[in-house]
From TrEMBL:
Record field: catalytic activity: 5-phospho-beta-D-ribosylamine + L-glutamate + diphosphate = 5-phospho-alpha-D-ribose 1-diphosphate + L-glutamine + H2O
Protein name listed in UniProt: Amidophosphoribosyltransferase
Organism encoding this protein: Flexivirga endophytica
EC number: 2.4.2.14
MF annotations from Gene Ontology: 4 iron, 4 sulfur cluster binding; amidophosphoribosyltransferase activity; magnesium ion binding
Annotated region (Disordered), positions in chain: 499-529
Keywords: 4Fe-4S, Glutamine amidotransferase, Glycosyltransferase, Iron, Iron-sulfur, Magnesium, Metal-binding, Purine biosynthesis, Transferase
């Protein structure tokens, strides 16, 4: 995945900030099974949804153990760590940070607790009233110092929800959850657990996917159906918007804590989800192929070869070739074994055109009119580099087709796009973007064409990044953004005297090199031009 500062990147263009996948969540209740290993392989299938950190929590009915760290699932866990995570229920998480920086303190699952027991929680999505919920935590603390994750410097919305679930020792967790979740605003799929019960909840809009599956000896929930199938679970259904489910020795219980108002993220179909995922009855791969067919109908061109940008552009390229009759071929070779690198290419290496991820297949391209299909254009840097590579490989003409409309607005529901000022389509029209990236022609799929490919009702899809129409109203006070909690004074965030947090004051940036705003200067996303 590309990172905004170029330090954690293996993309074609080191400075490009691609749309970042949000997070993956997984939960399993299965007595007699190796739940930690099931969770590991479930997270492995969800690795595309977050590559910054990974974690697993398990319970044996008496205590909860959590193991988490920065890095990929395969880097964080080994046989020894998984063997130590014993129990009959587990939750897991892969993270890309959308609220709170990319730090170890913000890795999930988070932990909270009361006299009744411990709570472990993992979250996919992004809340838009995090600051308001943090105020609510402070009210409940009534002058007492924050405990648990918040006291240890966690600045994620996940830690705030965990605190809200943990601060009512007089009520069972299930009852507390039914009171807390209606107060959450934004997109969230949450899996959490105490020592005995697995829970899963989905926001009333159903922005992010969450599926329920069945094992011979238990139940599973996961962000995508592909993770269920990976571990041999049968897909039962989706967790409904506004639904809380609980799974324990007495079976599965369902509660409706809010009326459903479906607004599923259309970008899941375009880019985020795995091709083999099924969302609301539609196979994602089939939706992407149909987007390519629609592109061919809307933006035909004379060309000799259709190629897709690996991996997400390939299904749409296949559809374009099928509809247009132009041969489909491989134009790029992708290095599938490149992991995240912390090595910053020097300016000299950039000028030489260092290519860590993609290389053109010169013998297939030379002398041909090439049509390139990609899923989206954010800043335009990646497409500019692709066009330059293809020209250097001898392409006679280069025509670019995009299987989503122009992205002109940021997402506040779990995808980390560039700011609005950085989105190339905010200030430029299609012809200007074409000239900027150096293509011979450029065409975007229409909004209606994209929606038709998903086979979902238009009024049940969130299209805010294309239209600026946000289905979940954003806070009027402007307290929103990735680092909203990190801009608070340290004593407010942790409930500690600042004299004990000198080390934290000195930590000015997260693992991505992004300023955490501890000097009072984090930018507010809503106020971006």
């Amino acid at each position: 995945m590309a990172r905004g500062d170029g330090r954690l990147t293996h993309d074609l263009y080191p400075g490009e900030k691609a749309p970042q996948d949000e997070c993956g969540v997984f939960g399993v209740w299965a007595p007699g099974e190796e739940v930690a290993k099931l969770t590991y392989f479930g997270l492995y299938a969800l690795q595309h949804r977050g590559q910054e950190s990974a974690g697993i929590a398990t319970s044996d009915g008496h205590s909860i153990l959590v193991y988490k760290d920065m890095g990929l699932v395969s880097q964080v866990f080994d046989e020894s760590s998984l063997t130590s995570l014993r129990g009959h229920l587990a939750i897991g998480h892969t993270r890309y940070s959308t609220t709170g920086g990319s730090t170890w303190e913000n890795a999930q699952p988070t932990l909270g607790g009361s006299d009744r027991g411990t709570v472990a929680l993992a979250h996919n999505g992004n809340l838009i009233n995090t600051a308001e919920l943090r105020d609510l935590v402070d009210e409940k603390l009534d002058g007492r110092a924050a405990r648990g994750e918040l006291a240890r410097g966690n600045t994620s919305d996940t830690a705030v929800v965990t605190a809200l679930l943990s601060e009512n020792p007089d009520k069972p967790l299930e009852e507390t959850a039914l009171e807390v979740f209606p107060k959450l605003q934004g997109a969230y799929c949450i899996v959490f657990m105490d020592e005995h019960t697995l829970y899963a909840a989905r926001d009333p809009y159903g922005v992010r996917p969450l599926a329920l599956g069945r094992l011979d000896r238990g139940w599973v929930v996961a962000s995508e159906t592909a993770a269920l199938q990976t571990i041999g679970a049968s897909v039962v259904r989706e967790v409904e918007p506004g639904e809380l489910i609980a799974i324990d020795e007495y079976g599965l219980r369902s509660h409706k804590f809010a009326e459903p108002k479906p607004k599923g993220c259309v970008f899941e179909y375009v880019y985020l989800a795995r091709p083999d995922a099924v969302i609301r009855g539609r196979v994602v791969h089939e939706a992407r192929v149909e987007m390519g067919r629609q592109l061919a109908r809307e933006h035909p061109v004379d060309a000799d070869l259709v190629i897709g940008v690996p991996e997400s552009g390939v299904p749409a390229a296949t559809g374009y070739a099928q509809e247009s009759g132009i041969p489909f071929g491989q134009g790029f070779v992708k290095n599938a074994y490149v992991g995240r690198t912390f090595i910053q290419p020097s300016q000299t290496l950039r000028q030489l055109g260092i290519r860590l991820k993609l290389n053109p297949l010169q013998h297939a391209i030379k002398g041909k009119r090439v049509l390139v299909v990609d899923d989206s254009i954010v800043r335009g840097n990646t497409q500019r580099a692709q066009v330059r590579m293809l020209r250097e490989a001898g392409a006679a003409e280069i025509h670019v087709r995009i299987s989503s409309p122009p992205i002109t607005w940021p997402c506040f529901y779990g995808i980390d796009f560039a700011t609005r000022a950085e989105l190339i389509a905010t200030g430029l029209g299609t012809e200007e973007i074409r000239a900027s990236i150096g293509a011979d022609s450029l065409g975007y799929i229409s909004e209606d064409g994209m929606i038709a490919a998903t086979e979902q009702p238009k009024d049940e899809l969130c299209r805010a990044c294309f239209t600026g129409e946000y289905p979940i109203p954003l806070p009027e006070d402007g307290r929103i953004g990735k680092h909203v909690l990190e801009t608070l004074p340290i004593e407010v965030r942790t409930g500690h005297d600042t004299s004990v947090d000198v080390a934290e004051q000195d930590r000015r940036s997260d693992a991505e090199g992004v300023s955490l705003g501890l000097s009072g200067g984090a930018e507010n996303s809503l106020l971006q031009p």
